[in-house]
Each structure stands twice: as structure tokens, then as C-alpha cells.
Amino acid sequence: MNRHLNIIGPQIRRLRNAMGWSQNYFAIKLQLLGMETATRKKVAKIESREVWVSDDDLLFISRVLRVDLSQLFPPKILGARHLYHAICEAKASRFGCLIAGLFFCPELGAGVLNFASIVSAV
């Protein structure tokens, strides 16, 4: 099971796309600023939340995207009353949330079981 190692990947992808930049162009801009380890592959892994992002990498990324560090984090985290729970939720796998939903929401679980029985009957 793939564990998500950062919570900023989706925001970086959104901001990069808003600038109209490819992952390769973004990596080149990061390299020019001084982030020597920046490659298209690393940018892709950051955006897909497959790698941990160091604090100095955060600074490079925010500088290249011309945003404040806080804009790299999900809005849900910035306004959270219970920061620990918000971070855990943001790091949770989409599939982990679905599985938890099946256990804690009987209507959703029944709907998924109904769908599974229809699919298996075909």
C-alpha cells in the first residue's frame, strides 16, 4: 500500500498548472534557483505525494512559484482547530478513507456490497 509522505503535492501541482508550466520547466526553474536535486521525476513524485519534502525544498518551491509558504498547504490544515487530526487526515490514503467509510457508514457499506454483487453476477 502506497503511503503518502507529504501533504503539499496537490497544491504544488495546482499552482504549477496555474502558471502554465510543465513539470520539466518547473524543475529547471528550481535548479536555476539552486535546488540541485530538482528533476522532472522528483517534481512528479512530490506532486503525487510519493516523496518527503524537506524544509529547504519547500523554500525553493515557494520562491519559484512566487507564493507564501502557507499557500503550499491545504486550506483545511491552515484553519484546523485540531492540527494533528487535520494533518493525519490529509496524509491518509484515498483508499484508506474509503475503507474507513465502509466500516463507519452502514449505508455506504451496503451500497458497495450491492454494487459488488451486481458486478460479480455479470
Overview of this protein structure:
- With 122 residues, this protein is mainly alpha-helical.
- The chain has helices at residues 9-19, 23-33, 40-47, 55-65, 75-78, 83-91, 94-104, 106-121.
- The protein folds into two domains: 9-78, 434 Repressor (Amino-terminal Domain); 92-121.
- The chain contains eight helices and no strands.
- It is globular, with a radius of gyration of 18 Å.
- 17% of the residues are buried.
CATH topology descriptor of the largest domain: 434 Repressor (Amino-terminal Domain)
What is the number of domains? 2
Question: What percentage of amino acids are in beta strands?
Answer: under 5%
The CATH homologous superfamily of the largest domain is termed: lambda repressor-like DNA-binding domains
* Number of strand segments: 0
Q: Return residue spans where pLDDT drops below 50 for at least 5 consecutive residues.
A: 95-106
The rough form would be described as globular
Distance from N terminus to C terminus (CA atoms, Å) equals: 29 Å
In round numbers, the mean pLDDT is: 80
Describe the sheet with the most strands.
none
CATH hierarchy: architecture of the largest domain: Orthogonal Bundle
- C-alpha-based Rg, rounded: 18 Å
Contiguous helical run count: 8
From N to C, what is the helix and strand string?
Answer: HHHHHHHH
Q: How much helix is in the residues?
A: 55-70%
CATH class of the largest domain: Mainly Alpha
Question: What class would the helix/strand composition place it in?
Answer: mainly alpha
